[in-house]
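Side project, low priority. Logging it here so it doesn't get lost.
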Amino acid sequence: MRQTIDAAAFQQMVIHAAAAIRAEKQRINDLNVFPVPDGDTGTNMSLSIGAAAAEMKKQSFDTVGKAAQATASALLRGARGNSGVILSLLFRGFAKAIKERETMDGRDLAIALDFGVAAAYKAVMKPAEGTILTVSRLAAARAAGAAREDNCFEAVLEAAIQEGQLALADTVNQNPVLKKAGVVDAGGAGFLLILQGMLNEVRGEEMPADEEPAQAEKADFGAIPAEDITFAFDTVFIVRKPSPNVNLEPFRTYLNGIGDSLVIGEDDEAFKVHVHTNIPGAALTEAQKYGTLELAKIENMRTQAEDLAAGRHVQSTDDLDAVEQELERGAAMPEEPVKAAPEKKYGYVAVCAGAGLEAVFKDLGVDGVISGGQTMNPSTEDILREIDRTPAEIVFVLPNNKNIIMAAEQAVHLSEEKKVIVVPTKTIPQGISAMLAVDPETEQDSELALAMLDAAKHVRSGQVTYAARDSEFDGKKIKQGEYLSLCEGKLCANGKETSVLKKLAREMVSDDSAFATVIFGEGVTEEQAAEVENLLHKENKEMEINVIDGGQPVYYYIISVE
């Protein structure tokens, strides 16, 4: 049993932990109970600690305290989503406890875990049981008891994990939502994966490698002259079926009409399509009528053939895969930070996804827009980078998603030259309303912040998306692939598109409603958006309605009513 660890060992433990959760991030993602398709706890935690692992690979430290401090700092800056932020807080307290230690034994570990739990609980406004907080607290308590019995580092860490596993298993009984879904807490599971990875490193176990992806279907471009390619785009995608007996014959007929080399393979759960076409977007749009799009690969065979003939590097989706892997390992070269000198008193940074929404926020006076907030949350460092770029003395940040608020709040403490104020907007409509309330002549920044927050509170927000998994929520059984409508973050309806939209309109609109906005996402036509506008008008004929092409992914419609 390993009695103590030094700085070098701690560094390798962090690297091993990052590899451990990276290998199983999808399993953690799948534990997200709410069925909307942005369950990303595993991804967020993996990317967060991946930032720390990258830092551990860059340099060596002479004390375990310094190594822990660097880990906590990298985690904080790389934190994504609530789970990533809480993980960074756990490590921040951990690092504070062993700041002066050259090596770490069992008692040091127990104290560090306890400090980490205290830091996390302090930062969370209303800590609930059955979460990562519960798991970490009970694991730390067991570590303290184990350290009194045996001051061995390995023994104490093992005891903490064992108790954490018991606590994790009990989360299903502590949280009604988890109980209905029959799963344990995703954040707690991710945290234990990280601890287990650290323990495995201490024991000398082999670090998990990323699973080698299956060989993708690829066209033989060398055998095809560019001028002989009629349909340029080699298109492969996978669609998850809403039910086993989906009739694909109409889809097959459609694809034969827009391309060639068509192959469709299927089982009860999904179907995979390979087709050559000049309009891959149309193929993907049509595919979504038959299920939920899961994965897509599009390559231009004509340009690939030309590159091959000219002896140039042939661009393919493999290049994208390589970039993605580098990003997830935290190995991508960071861009040179830009720090803009203040040119005005107030500046604004917003988070959103979609070119149309970005344009809306820019038109409203936002200086910088960070892409994200639906399937991928920006890190604290992403937010801080945009704050630095904003030429203002005081920068207001609009997260526009409840899972980004904590990451944004960390940037408040990290910004060295500018005052940062987070306006805790939880939806895109709230962010838009907050910006509409901006009066640049307001002298006190606190008054401006209150005005923005007050405006945000007076708007009702709704979204229409699809169910990413079978689930049960608020007493309603939800099937994968169904349309879902959400009102103020709560499930409004599920089922077919028309009925879901009608129920959402009735829920959101009242006789007092004066103004509404319909923001339609990618894959939605103007004609379809106009139908939603008509549904809202049926509920209140006097209400003014604005329709915007937001271009956002995942959410077909984002609707606001004031």
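Brief comment: The two ends are 63 Å apart (CA to CA).
Revisit when time allows.
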